[in-house]
Amino acid sequence: MFGQVMARIAGRFGRVEPRATARAYLLGLLSSVERKNCWQLAEQAGHARPGPMQRLLRYARWDAEAVRDDLRAYVVEHLGADGGVLVVDETGFLKKGHTSAEVQRQYTGTAGHIENAQVGEFLALATERGRALIDRRLYLPEHSWPEHSWSDDPERRTTAGIPETVQFATKPRLASEMIAAALDAGITASWVTGDEAYRQDPQLRATLETCGTGYVMAVAWSTRVRINHGRTPIRADTLAGRLPATAWQRHSAGKGAKGPRYYDWAWIHIGTDSHRHLLVRRNRSTGELAFYLCWSPTEVPLSELVRVAGVRWSVEECFQAAKGQVGLDHYQVRNWTFWHRHITSAMPALAFLTALAADAAPERPDDAYHPVRSRDPITLTVPEIRHVLAAVFAPPAVTVARLLHWSNWRRCHQATARRSHYRRRAAGKPAG
Q1: Are the C-beta atoms of 347 and 132 separated by less than 8 Å?
Q2: What are phi and psi of 259, to 5 degrees?
Q3: Three-state DSSP state, 92
Q4: I want to staple 328 with a disulfide (CB 3.0 to 4.6 A). Which of 189, 264, 284, 322 is the partner?
């Protein structure tokens, strides 16, 4: 199956050298090396220096967008798409300094506060067989520090390799571009879901309705909706507070680590037709409420809206697996193109693991109470498969001479970097 992945993308590399390096790069991402950067991936691959890995990201001729298209087709082939859900979300990459493309102090959920970081917008496809990341965008902040403005500093943009055609676009706009590209590629997903940031763009919702794709978007408690056939405006939390006890139904939002995730749910028709709803989720222990704005091309039951709302959390599992298993955030590059190339390489590695897990899963899913009485092992997970493959793909035993060679190379490179920092400091220049 790994050969199938490489065969699908091999044609995107015009020469045999970058094609072989790309294969070694993906195998390194699947390995057990501590940090999946060019240095350690090169050592894992048996190279004498990191040059080939660095050239793959920097100078080799290959189209990351075309590889992304191949990845999207691979995911659909192995996970399916009918009845699937496209999930949009962002994740942060904490960084030091200010020279990496798009890095600045901004809020990121990864840190939970404002931090020096890059923010990537991602699109995932979730089906009954699994979920995987299928597209990505690096977010260009609208407001930067005055002394470090990306939009007003052409020299800084040029240094970071940001194309002149790339200008500020809102996160919903980036999400709309990725969703449109997926639908244009023939993905027959029935739903789109995302958090509050994506509900703010009416153009995104209008695009989905025009395409006949339903959506379940998280919204704030203060969102105003219209009831009584669109005649009465009311806030979402006020409306939820007026619901009778009989309006609430218990449903599972999907399986979690500790079993089915049960909540109380209610839905209210809004607008002027029967296809729009405000969906309300209530925590059975704390009473905390969450709200979703929903539209469907046809009438659907409450259980279907609940299912889609629950799928939204699956993208967090994708981020966790991508960062923890295939080094999505282990890159040490500053350039716009280099970032997209590393991220695009990590996504097929994760998709490969997901496809293996899907093929190994039993045809009949366990019932909700099966784990209570069964002594059988759980189905293969992405971390477990990656753990096994790390041993299967492990290179032959490394000689002491090879270990010392890399130790000496790293220390020499670090000494060069230290001298550069000392010279900058002595000259009164910032080091970052």
Answers
A1: yes
A2: 110, -170
A3: strand
A4: 322
